[in-house]
Amino acid sequence: MHGTIRRMISLFAYIKSKEAVEYGRMYKSAFTRESPLNFENSILIHINKHGLTNHMELRNYFKKIGKISISKQAFSKSKEKLNPNVFKNLNNHLLTKFYGSNEVKKFKNHLILSGDGSKSTLPYNKTLENIFGGIINKFQELTSVAINLTTIYDCLNGFIIDLELDKYKTSEKELINRNMDNITKLDYLKDTKKIFICDRGFPSIEFFNYLLEKNEKFIFRIRKNSYKAEKTIMKTNDEFIDININKTRLNHIKNKELKEKLLKKEKLNLRITKITLPTGEEEHLISNLNKKTFTSNDLKELYNLKWGIEVSYDSLKNLFAIENVSGYSEIAVKQDYLSQILAYNIVNDLENTAQKILNQKTQNTKDPKPKKKKINKNIALGIIKEELIKITRLTEENTQKEKLIELIQEISKTYTQTSTTKSPRKPKRAYSTKNRTNNRKSF
């Protein structure tokens, strides 16, 4: 618990620091005058976002801090002063503290990082359409304004380490390359062993080579018809083979220098593992993990961890309301998306600590029919968004600590539970999807 509390207090202090203000200015004269919309409030309004109208977001925020609300026009104008990348900077500050602690979960001394992409829709607006484009139907008509985004997610610790977003037509492969470049520049991950996991949309000769040159470990799922010629010479379901590099496999690469460089290599020696699923279907993985340290069962387990990134996208869209943007400019969209990545990681840190407390309580009970208890993220999010801003306004560190402890203790009492013993199957019933109690929002 103390590690999380120290990180939260450090983050609150950093938001108020001159360093953060300097980083967060779009220009030198920004945030130099006394105003209700100073730098600190601008940051916290974004973190506290509920997916409501700007008027209600501002009303709710300023009501919490005991000040008169300002107009949505003033808010829109102030957004032009705020550098969206300041939220990446704040996120890195938080994650530096976490990955420098002894709380980090690893698999055989490796961080397990997953990369994946998602389409994300925005409100229809002509300006947003001109900036980002969107989804077009067979009649060449725009059906919705949308963007493409990719993230790097820590599968065991639950943090989103990096996000990149761009126009809808931007390929996910291009965005994931930006993510990888960003990751290599993070000081807190430089000396850490990592395994990158990606799905079928990302494998390519150039990506394999990029990771090999960076001395990074990886697992990709590949299609059954990928590298057919190489698979035919496999004698077992798990072995290293040479992946031939030829012009056909590099046709999509526009960079001539990269093409020539890869052709000179002629081949890459990689491991292909065929895994049989419970359904009888076969799944093919390609990696550079050595067989002595990582068995085929390890690879299967590691690839299954990738599911966490899918859950994170669902939370961002449906709980954090990341798509309900507060402005119709490129800067506004980036501010909203990047601020909610920071909000997600704050919630995850507090939730992880609450889960540890809950686990300890569960272990200490002598229930003959034990139940698996998990923190309810929806309720946890509602509580955190309700209380966190008030805690940031406290001036005494000891009082902040006390309130954070109370907050974590409260979250630990909000959980869902499932029995660890199997119960007889119940017949399926058709339920109305409207107004379902398990879909209610917590704020």
TrEMBL record:
GO terms for biological process: DNA transposition. Keywords: DNA recombination, DNA-binding, Transposition. One of its GO terms (molecular function) is DNA binding. It comes from the Archaea. Pfam families: DDE_Tnp_1. Residues 147-346 form the Transposase IS4-like domain. The lineage of its organism: Archaea, Methanobacteriati, Methanobacteriota, Methanomada group, Methanobacteria. Belongs to the transposase 11 family. It comes from Methanobrevibacter curvatus. NCBIfam families: transpos_IS4_1. This is Transposase DDE domain protein. InterPro entries: RNaseH-like_sf, Transpos_IS4, Transposase_11. Residues 416-443 are annotated as: Disordered. Residues 423-443 have a biased composition (Basic residues).
